[in-house]
Design goal:
GO biological process, one term: cell division
Number of helices: 9
Main location: cytoplasm
Family: Belongs to the MurB family.
Largest sheet: 5 strands, antiparallel
Number of domains: 3
Strand content: 15-25%
Keywords: Cell cycle, Cell division, Cell shape, Cell wall biogenesis/degradation, Cytoplasm, FAD, Flavoprotein, NADP, Oxidoreductase, Peptidoglycan synthesis
Order of helices and strands: EEHEEEEEHEHEEEEHEEHHEHEEHEEHE
Shape: globular
Structural class: alpha+beta
InterPro entries: FAD-bd_PCMH, FAD-bd_PCMH-like_sf, FAD-bd_PCMH_sub1, FAD-bd_PCMH_sub2, MurB, MurB_C, MurB_C_sf, Oxid_FAD_bind_N
CATH topology of the largest domain: Uridine Diphospho-n-acetylenolpyruvylglucosamine Reductase, domain 3
Oligomer: single chain
Length: about 350
């Protein structure tokens, strides 16, 4: 195995945006694809539990930590050839977005400010403000632990859906090494603006284009206003961003939900509703949380709802993972009691369950 940085009984909390979680038995930091593959192969050959860590922005690690090998992927690589972009898994995502905008390319400018690494983006099918990475990803290069080899998966093979993918469905099979994108040269303009809040803030109609740099700056301001841009001094950003996904309901489920809304909030109350495919409607987790009584800043302990956004659960500085989970469970139970909808956590949990 190539020489990689190796630590024992290593704290993992500093590697997560929550700043929570106990230590790992062993922590390896890999800076090349070969080091990543060697570390994974060694763990698999010895039957050692393996935890992959990228930017740590979508991770909730239990207070007991992780018994096994934690592998931090710190690979570097930003290659731009015309409109084709290839990123190493360890590249800082928001920095990569900034560089594509500087190059005058469109397609991921509204994904600015999202914390984490490039390798995590296809796993979660990261999306925000009207864009998802699945719209621009062409291929994902990954190490297939089942086959024991590196594979290249085309977009269609990645099984992308809302905040989901083949990689998330089979979390112990694939280790993302590189991600390839096809961006758009629109003469320095953005992709058509889709998200209503972004269009309103920009003063344009949905479908219009604006300078890509302007779209990026606007999204960064919107995110910062919700505590969704990392800032060590701001405890509202000691989070995993959106802790719950927006529920997608069948027609039958939505009708039952709509009846609960009317019963609780009055016959004229209307919940957010967005088409999500045939027979499916997406509603807003943030709206549900707020209307169930969990408003901004809710909580009296060291883990509370963000003062800027109801969808973010935060560590106020002295929290434990158990504090966080207690709050999350309270929110899930409250929303279910109020509206009959069960929220699903977006971050990956390690050694704990919601």
């Amino acid at each position: 195995m190539e020489r990689v940085q190796e630590l024992h009984d290593a704290p993992l909390a500093p590697l997560t945006t929550f700043r929570l979680g106990g230590p790992a038995t062993r922590l390896l930091t890999a800076t090349t694809d070969a080091e990543v593959i060697d570390a994974v192969r060694e763990a698999d050959a010895t039957g050692t539990p393996l935890l992959i860590i990228g930017g740590g922005s979508n991770l909730v690690i239990g207070d007991a930590g992780f018994t096994g090998t934690a592998l931090r992927i710190a690979t570097k690589g930003f290659e731009l050839d015309g409109t084709r972009l290839e990123l190493a898994a360890g590249e800082v995502w928001t920095d990569a977005v900034a560089r594509t905008v500087e190059a005058g390319l469109a397609g991921i400018e509204c994904l600015a400010g999202i914390p984490g690494s490039a390798g995590a983006t296809p796993i979660q099918n990261v999306g925000a403000y009207g864009q998802e990475v699945s719209a621009t990803i062409t291929e994902v290069i990954a190490y297939d632990r089942a086959a024991g080899e590196t594979v290249t998966l085309a977009n269609a093979e990645c099984a992308f859906s809302y905040r989901h993918s083949r990689f998330k469905a089979e979390p112990d099979r694939y280790v993302v090494l590189r991600v390839r994108f096809e961006l758009e040269d629109a003469g320095g303009l953005s992709a058509p603006v889709k998200y209503p809040e972004t269009a309103r803030t920009l003063g344009v109609e949905a479908g219009d284009r604006v300078p890509a740099a302007t779209a990026r700056e606007t999204v960064l301001k919107l995110r910062a206003g919700k505590g969704m841009v990392l800032d060590p001094e701001d405890h509202d950003t000691w989070s995993a961003g959106s802790f719950f996904t927006n529920p997608i309901l069948t027609d039958e489920e939505f009708a039952a939900f709509h009846a609960r809304v009317a019963e609780r909030l009055g016959p004229d109350a209307k919940a957010p509703a967005f088409p999500a495919g045939e027979g499916l409607t997406k509603t807003s987790a943030a709206w549900l949380i707020d209307k169930a009584g969990f408003t901004k800043g809710y909580g009296s302990g060291p883990a509370r709802i963000s003062t800027k956004h109801t969808l973010a659960l935060t560590n106020r500085g002295e929290a434990t993972t158990e504090d966080l989970l207690t709050l999350a469970r309270e929110v899930v139970a409250g929303v279910r009691d109020a509206f009959g909808v069960t929220l699903v956590n977006e971050p990956v949990t390690v050694g704990v369950r919601l």
